[in-house]
Design goal:
Largest sheet: 3 strands, antiparallel
Number of domains: 1
InterPro entries: Metal_resp_DNA-bind_regulator, Tscrpt_reg_PadR_N, WH-like_DNA-bd_sf, WH_DNA-bd_sf
CATH topology: Arc Repressor Mutant, subunit A
Keywords: DNA-binding
Protein name: DNA-binding PadR family transcriptional regulator
Strand content: 5-15%
CATH class: Mainly Alpha
Organism: Paractinoplanes abujensis
Structural class: alpha+beta
CATH superfamily: Winged helix-like DNA-binding domain superfamily/Winged helix DNA-binding domain
Distance between the termini: 22 Å
CATH architecture: Orthogonal Bundle
Radius of gyration: 17 Å
Number of strands: 3
GO molecular function: DNA binding
């Protein structure tokens, strides 16, 4: 029997990788962390800030994002943008996601062999 905690754990694991793809895709247009949180949430990706900000730093360290500070407003904001390498990774990950989705769909419609 599946418990709510077990399901929650598996859903968190499933979402972990999809947040990378979603972030790299959204940040093709420059954006700051809070706006990314809002955009992801509006699209159905529930991500905590304490998960997203370390992810953004890691993606920047890997060369998949660049950042710059916008000091034009009263409160400075750090804007992130996907790099060409980040775009290539995002494209490859979306292609793999589509392939896996198709494979799972095929598995779910294939009769179980006894």
């Amino acid at each position: 029997m599946t418990t709510d905690a077990t399901l929650a754990s598996h859903l968190q694991e499933l979402r972990r990788g999809t947040v990378v793809v979603a972030s790299l895709t959204v940040l093709r247009t420059p954006g700051y962390g809070y706006s990314l949180l809002e955009t992801l949430s509006e699209s159905g990706f529930e991500v905590e800030a304490n998960t997203l900000y370390p992810l953004l730093r890691r993606l920047e360290t890997q060369g998949l994002l660049t950042s710059s500070w916008n000091t034009d407003e009263a409160r400075p904001r750090k804007f992130y943008t996907t790099t060409p390498q980040g775009n290539a990774i995002a494209d490859a990950l979306r292609t793999e996601w589509a392939r896996l989705d198709e494979a799972i769909t095929d598995l779910s419609t294939t009769p179980v062999k006894e």
